[in-house]
Write a structure and sequence with these properties.
The protein contains 20 helices and 20 strands. The chain has 541 residues and is α+β, with helices and mostly antiparallel strands.
Length: 541
C-alpha cells in the first residue's frame, strides 16, 4: 500500500492518514471530522509531549511557537553556559526531553517527534558489569566508575503489546470517531451528529460539503500548534481560504476576548515597551538616581543570605523566596533576582508533558483546545486500549531523573530501566539479555543499577539541573541569565525607566504561586507580572 514504512519498533506505519471533513461552506467552517483510531491516536499523543519538544518542533516551521514565554525560556537554556549546569547532559535533557510514552508514540501512523529514542549502555568489561559496579546509563561513552567507557548497548524489550492488529496506540478497536472543530472527540453516531448540528445552529437549508484530506507530518505539526492557540484548529488548518489559516504560515488564530485573559496585559505592556524603544534613551537624570538604582540592584548581601532568601516550609512544602525589581507606577516587573531553586522550577516547565499541565489545572488550562482534548480521553474510557494507555494521557509521568528534588509542582517519574545481566561469560560476549532467573547455560543473573544522567560522577550536588549557589536574573518574559549589574542597567535604560519609579519586592513562591507562574508562562508574554503582581492585586481587592 502506498505511503507505508516500518519504524524502529518494527511495526508497519503509514506516512499519512485519511480524514473526512464535513464543511459548512456558508460559514466557512468545519462542522466535524470523521476518522478511525489512527488520527485519534495522533491527536491524543499531543498530551504526551513535553513543552520543550513542542517549542522545538513548531519552531522549525514558524521560528516561534507563540506559546507564551516558552520560546524565550527555551532559548535561555540553549544560550546558558554549561558551567551553570550540573553536567553537559542537562542541557540536552532540557532542550530535547524524552517522553515517558516514547515507546508507544513511535508506533503512531504519523510521527512528528524527532527526539532520539532512549538507548542504554553498560561498561564494556565483564568484571565491572557483572561483579564490581554493575552500572547502566542512557549516555553513550559516559565514564564508568572503573574509568572505562560505557559503550556496549543493552537491548530493551518493548512493553508495547502488538498482538492485536485491530487496536491502535492508545485507542482500541475499529470504531469510527467524530472530532469537532474544537477537538472534542466522541464515537461516531447519528445522535452525536444531530446534537452537534443543533449546537452549531445548522438547519436543512445550509450547504454542507464532504471533503477528504490526507494528513501527513506537516499537517500534524500545524494541528499541534493550532490546538494550543485556537478554538477552531481544524478549520484553521484545513480551510486556508479563511485567510488566517495555519496550513502554510502557522499564524495563530486570534482568540475571542477572555480566552487568554492573562495575555491582554502583557500585550499592552509589550506595545508600550516597543514605543519606548523607538525613542532615544536619555541619560540618567543625575548621580543620585544612579546611586539609588545601584543600591536597589545590588541590594544587601547580608539580606540575601538571611531569612528573606531562605526556603520557608508551609503546609504544601517548600517555598522559594525571590526578589522582584518592579515599577511603582504600574504593576509590571522589570526583572527578578533569584537563586538556582527558582531556575530549576522554570527550567522544569520545559520537561512537563502537556497532559500533566492539563491535570494540574483540572482540565482548565485556557490553552486553545487542550482542555477539550484532555477531557475527551476520559469520555472515551471504554474505547481506550488499556488503563495504562489512559494513564499515559491523563496522568503522564516524567522519564527517570527528570524531576527536581525540591520541585514545587510534583510529577511522578517512571522507574529507571535496570535490566538483568548474566554472570555467564559466553552470554556476556554475545549480548544475551536474560529476562529472569538463569541464562541458557545455567548461570545466575544480576541486576544492573541505573546511573543518574544529571550526576554521572555519582556525586549528588543539588536536586536539579542548575548548579548552586548561583544568582540569576529573570526578565518578565522569562529570559534567564546569570546576575549582572551591567545587564540590569541595560534593561532599565532600554525601556527608559525613571529610577524613582523602581522598587524592590520580595515574593515567597509556593505551590499556588508556581501554578500561577506555569499558567502565565504558557499564555502571556509578561509571566512574572501576571503571576505575582496580578494575583497580589486581586487579593488586596
Amino acid at each position: 500500500m502506498k505511503g507505508k514504512s516500518t519504524n524502529r519498533m518494527g511495526r508497519s506505519k503509514k506516512s499519512m492518514v485519511t480524514v473526512k471533513l464535513l464543511v459548512d461552506n456558508e460559514r466557512n467552517r468545519i462542522v466535524f471530522a470523521e476518522s478511525d483510531k489512527d488520527f485519534i491516536d495522533i491527536l491524543f499523543s499531543f498530551l504526551t509531549m513535553p513543552v520543550a519538544t513542542i517549542v522545538r518542533l513548531v519552531g522549525k516551521e514558524s521560528k516561534e511557537s507563540d506559546l507564551g514565554c516558552m520560546d524565550m525560556l527555551y532559548k535561555s537554556v540553549k544560550d546558558l553556559d554549561i558551567m551553570h549546569l550540573q553536567s553537559e547532559t542537562c542541557k540536552n535533557m532540557l532542550t530535547h526531553p524524552t517522553s515517558a510514552s516514547e515507546e508507544e508514540c513511535k508506533n503512531l501512523a504519523v510521527v512528528i517527534d524527532d527526539t532520539e529514542i532512549t538507548r542504554y549502555y553498560r561498561c564494556r568489561t565483564y568484571q565491572c558489569s557483572t561483579h564490581n559496579h554493575r552500572l547502566i546509563t542512557t549516555v553513550k561513552n559516559a565514564k564508568c566508575r572503573c574509568e572505562g567507557p560505557m559503550i556496549e548497548e543493552v537491548p530493551k524489550c518493548s512493553r508495547v503489546a502488538t498482538d492485536d492488529a485491530a487496536d491502535g496506540v492508545f485507542v482500541k478497536g475499529s470504531h469510527k470517531f467524530m472530532i469537532s472543530d474544537d477537538l472534542k472527540i466522541s464515537v461516531l453516531s447519528t445522535r452525536a451528529c444531530l446534537s452537534l448540528f443543533k449546537k452549531l445552529g445548522i438547519s436543512e437549508g445550509i450547504a454542507l460539503e464532504e471533503r477528504v484530506v490526507y494528513v501527513n507530518d506537516v499537517v500534524v505539526l500545524h494541528l499541534l500548534k493550532q490546538s494550543l492557540l485556537s478554538k477552531t484548529p481544524l478549520s484553521d488548518v484545513f480551510l486556508p481560504e479563511r485567510g488566517k489559516g495555519d496550513q502554510v504560515d502557522l499564524e495563530p488564530k486570534v482568540l475571542a476576548p477572555g480566552e487568554r485573559e492573562m495575555t491582554t496585559g502583557g500585550e499592552k505592556m509589550c506595545m508600550k515597551l516597543q514605543q519606548r524603544k523607538s525613542n532615544k534613551v536619555s541619560h540618567a537624570k543625575d548621580q543620585e538616581d544612579c546611586v539609588t538604582f545601584l543600591a536597589i540592584l545590588l541590594g544587601s548581601v547580608t539580606e540575601l543570605l538571611c531569612s528573606n532568601m531562605k526556603n520557608v516550609l508551609n503546609t504544601y512544602g517548600k517555598k522559594i523566596s525571590i526578589k522582584l525589581l518592579r515599577r511603582k507606577s504600574k504593576e509590571k516587573v522589570v526583572y527578578a533576582e533569584v537563586g538556582e531553586d527558582f531556575i530549576n522550577l522554570l527550567f522544569s516547565f520545559l520537561t512537563f508533558p502537556l497532559g500533566s499541565i492539563a491535570k494540574f489545572f483540572n482540565g482548565h488550562t485556557s490553552m486553545g483546545c487542550v482542555d477539550k482534548l484532555y477531557k475527551s480521553v476520559g469520555n472515551l474510557k471504554d474505547h481506550m486500549k488499556s488503563d495504562q494507555c489512559k494513564a499515559l494521557l491523563l496522568d503522564p509521568k516524567l522519564p527517570p531523573y527528570f524531576g527536581c528534588k525540591n520541585q514545587l509542582l510534583r510529577i511522578s517519574e517512571v522507574a529507571p530501566f535496570q535490566p538483568l545481566i548474566s554472570y555467564c561469560h559466553r552470554c556476556f560476549v554475545v549480548g544475551t539479555a536474560p529476562d529472569f532467573g538463569k541464562c541458557p547455560h545455567g548461570r545466575e543473573t544480576v541486576q544492573l543499577r541505573a546511573m543518574n544522567p544529571v550526576h554521572l560522577d555519582g556525586k549528588i550536588k543539588s536536586g536539579g539541573f542548575v548548579k548552586g549557589p548561583t544568582r540569576f536574573m529573570v526578565t518578565d518574559d522569562l529570559h534567564v541569565e546569570p546576575l549582572s549589574v551591567i545587564a540590569g542597567i541595560s534593561i532599565v535604560n532600554r525601556f527608559n525607566l525613571p529610577m524613582s519609579d523602581l522598587k524592590e519586592q520580595f515574593v515567597n513562591v509556593g505551590e499556588e504561586e508556581a501554578l500561577n507562574l506555569l499558567k502565565a508562562s504558557l499564555l502571556s508574554q509578561t509571566a512574572l507580572s501576571d503571576a505575582f503582581l496580578t494575583v497580589e492585586n486581586e487579593a488586596l481587592q
